[in-house]
Specification:
CATH class of the largest domain: Alpha Beta
Largest sheet: 5 strands, parallel
Shape: globular
Number of strands: 7
Radius of gyration: 23 Å
Structural class: alpha/beta
Helix content: 40-55%
Strand content: 5-15%
Strand order of the largest sheet: 3-2-1-4-5
Bound molecules: iron/sulfur cluster
Length: 368
C-alpha cells in the first residue's frame, strides 16, 4: 500500500481556516499538510490570517506560488501570457493557473486526501480533481464523501455488490431498514439525493463504514489506508460554528468580514467583504467594490490600473464609472433595499447570512 498524504488548502477564507483548526483539534494524530496558493493579490488580512493559523497549528503552511522563478507576482505573470485578458466567470484562467495547477504539482502522483471546508448549510459541491490520485473529503457535512464516490456507491448497477459488502461487514445493525434502503433502486420517484439523505439519517456511521469498505475495492486514495477516523464523524457545522471556532481558537475572523457602518440618504447600513481571494476578484458584488474603494482605496486604484485596452472587471461598467458619487449612492441604496427584503425572508441577525448568496457564487479553491 502506498503512503497517503492528507492535505488541506487554506484559501484565506473563514471556512478553510476553521477546518484547519477543527482537524488539529479533532484529529491531532493525523499528519495534515497545510498549503496556500498565493496569487500575489490577496488582501493584507489574508496574510495575517495565515500567520495566526501557523501559530495555532504549530506548523508551517506551505506557500505555493504559480510561475515560481518569475520576477512578477503569479497573477501579473499569467495576465501577460494571456495578453492582458482579465479573467471573468466565463473565462476563469486564474483559478486554473494560480490555484489548481500549483496544487496538482504540489501533490504530484501521491495518493492524497484533500480536506475541504464546505459547510453543512451549503448546497454546493466541491472541486473534484481531474487527477484520480486526489480524493476530497468534507468533514463539515453530514455527507463527507464527494459526489463521484456517492455516484458509484449508490449506482443501481452496484446494488448487489454494496448489499453483499454491507452484509459482510462486522455487526451491521440488521434490524434497521438500512439494508432495505440499500436495495431500493434509484428512479425518478426515488432520487439518488433522497436515497443518500435517508441512509445518512438512518445511520451515518454505518454508511461511512460501508463507503470506506467499498473504496477499499477501488483505486481511490483511501484504498491505501487501513482505517479512516472520519468514518465516525457525525458533525455538521454551519456558518455560526465557523465564526465560533475562529473566535474561540484565538485565530480570529479575518478583518474583511467585519461589518463597517455607512450612511446613505440618512439611512444607515453596514457592509463587508463576503469572501477571501484576490482584492479585484470579478466575483465580488457591486457593494463589495464600493467597500474596496472606501476601505482600501490603494487596492481599488490598483484594480483600476488593470482596466485597459478594453478589458474591464465588470461587464456593464468600468471601475471609474462605478465610483462616480451618484453611482456609489445608488449601489448603496440598492444594497440596503436588498438587505431589508432578504432580512424579512431569512430572519437572521447576521449580515454574513444575508451576504451568503454572494459567498456561494464562485469557486471553492478561492473562497472556502
Ligand atoms: S479570487 Fe477571483 S480573481 Fe483571484 S484567482 Fe480566485 S477567481 Fe480568480
Amino acid at each position: 500500500m502506498k503512503k497517503v498524504r492528507h492535505v488541506l488548502g487554506i484559501s484565506g477564507g473563514k471556512d478553510s481556516a476553521a477546518l484547519a483548526i477543527y482537524m488539529k483539534d479533532q484529529y491531532p494524530h493525523l499528519d495534515v499538510e497545510y498549503y496556500t496558493c498565493d496569487t500575489g493579490k490577496e488582501l493584507e488580512e489574508t496574510y495575517q490570517l495565515i500567520t495566526n493559523l501557523e501559530i495555532y497549528l504549530g506548523k508551517k503552511i506551505t506557500l505555493l506560488r504559480a510561475a515560481d522563478g518569475s520576477n512578477e507576482d503569479p497573477f501579473d505573470h499569467y495576465l501577460k501570457m494571456y495578453g492582458g485578458y482579465l479573467p471573468s466567470s466565463n473565462s476563469r484562467w486564474c483559478t486554473r493557473k494560480l490555484k489548481l495547477d500549483p496544487f496538482e504539482k504540489f501533490v504530484g502522483d501521491d495518493p492524497v486526501i484533500s480536506y475541504v471546508g464546505i459547510r453543512g448549510d451549503e448546497e454546493r459541491e466541491g472541486y473534484i480533481s481531474r487527477k484520480t490520485n486526489i480524493q476530497s473529503i468534507f468533514p463539515f457535512r453530514k455527507n463527507i464523501w464527494s459526489e463521484d464516490v456517492i455516484d458509484k456507491v449508490l449506482a443501481n448497477s452496484n446494488i448487489k455488490n454494496i448489499q453483499d459488502l454491507y452484509i459482510s461487514l462486522a455487526n451491521p445493525s440488521k434490524k434497521s431498514n438500512f439494508l432495505d434502503l440499500l436495495r431500493q433502486p434509484i428512479s425518478p420517484n426515488f432520487t439518488q439525493a433522497q436515497k443518500l439523505k435517508l441512509l445518512l439519517d438512518t445511520n451515518t456511521k454505518e454508511l461511512n463504514a460501508l463507503v470506506f469498505a467499498f473504496l477499499k475495492t477501488t483505486s481511490y486514495p483511501l484504498a491505501n489506508e487501513v482505517s479512516f477516523d472520519l468514518i465516525d464523524n457525525e458533525d455538521v457545522l454551519i456558518r455560526a460554528d465557523i465564526f465560533r471556532i475562529l473566535e474561540e481558537s484565538g485565530v480570529g475572523v479575518p478583518e474583511y468580514y467585519k461589518q463597517v457602518d455607512f450612511e446613505v440618504n440618512g439611512k444607515k447600513g453596514q457592509y463587508a467583504r463576503s469572501r477571501s481571494g484576490c482584492f479585484f476578484c470579478f466575483f465580488q458584488q457591486k457593494i463589495e467594490w464600493v467597500w474596496l474603494y472606501e476601505q482600501h482605496p490603494d487596492r481599488f486604484s490598483k484594480a483600476m490600473e488593470y482596466e485597459k485596452d478594453g478589458f474591464t472587471w465588470n461587464q456593464e461598467e468600468t471601475l471609474s464609472e462605478l465610483i462616480k458619487p451618484e453611482r456609489i449612492q445608488s449601489i448603496k441604496e440598492e444594497y440596503l433595499k436588498r438587505i431589508v427584503s432578504k432580512k424579512n425572508k431569512i430572519k437572521s441577525p447576521y449580515l454574513i447570512d444575508i451576504l451568503s448568496e454572494a459567498e456561494e457564487e464562485g469557486c471553492a479553491s478561492c473562497f472556502i
